[in-house]
Amino acid sequence: MSVYRISRNLEASFIEFLNTTLKETPYLWTDLNVIKGFARAYELSTPTIAVRAENTVYDKVEVGSNSFTRTVQVFIDIFASDDGMRLDLKDCIIEILKDGLIYNEYIVTKSGRTATATPTPNGRIRIQKIDDKAIDFNIDDKSKLDVHDRYRHLLTLSVSIGRVE
Amino acid sequence: MISVTITPKFDSKIIYNEFIEKNWFEFQSELFDAGSKMLSYMQSFITSKIKGESTGNLVRSIKLYSEAGAGAGSVSWGIGLISEMDAIAPYWHIIDVGGSSFKGDYHFVPGFFNGNKFVYNPMIAEGKSLPSGVKGIIKPMHYVDATRLQLDREIQKIIQSLKGGTKAGRSHGWGGGAGGAK
Fold first, then answer.
1. A39 occurs within a structural domain
2. B98: in domain
3. What is the CATH number of the domain that holds A93?
4. Closest chain B C-alpha to A146 CA, distance in angstroms
5. B36 in contact with A at a CB cutoff of 8 Å?
6. B86–chain A Cβ distance below 8 A for any pair
7. Closest CA of chain B from A141, distance in Å
């Protein structure tokens, strides 16, 4: 048995939430892949969303204290099949994430070769800021790009779980 | 049973009038210094991501520019001039956002050939084309977004320091207030 720490809990909470919500009514993105990381997106068909938590900053809660709060940057890369899908998908994601989501803590248990991550809700992830930009390589002939790079979008989120550590 | 309602009191006019306008020159100076700090942060962020290799021309291509027209009433700067970075380190964008190596005649992928094998390295070459059929995935470094996160934090610190260092900051009590206990 192993236990995820905060950064992995954050990533896994995002992935689970996006994977579930985007495939349900009214969004119904049933053929969507939601993955952790980046490189694996190039092995999958579009549309794919790649999620990863990377840069973190820590702020002391008060002078002289060893306690801090953390703000994490979460990157959501969207690999779409066309320009319309790119815009629709990023708007759906913003719509469902803007109010925040449940922060889960995960315990991973292994049975043979199978690992199962069990979530336990323990707080809320608050979205402090969303930056939204198309990834454009300024190439007129998109056929020179890999199919995954033709219609890409990047959402950069600053998030907090509001917890003093 | 006691319940407490906390009502944040936040008025941007008070923040501007009492902390920024009254301490304008201090605020301007701090913000200008933030430009140098952010330049240094971005360069060291890139260097820290490269283990045991040269950072090539990317770090050298990133410079601090004061914007024309900045005077006593404003402060303005920018980090990295796209036209200059395009000329010195044309792979700056793909290193930032990641992607697949380009096909065909687009000489954009940094790295070098070791015999027939292309070795991807974002920093030590100026961009080479890959042989057909060879592909490489360039993982994003996000050095621009990392610096923006740091800049947000720096601006918060500057405003906090003005608040703490002035009489206005002590007497007007912006930034939150507690409601009564019921």
1. yes
2. yes
3. 3.30.2000.10
4. 6
5. no
6. no
7. 11
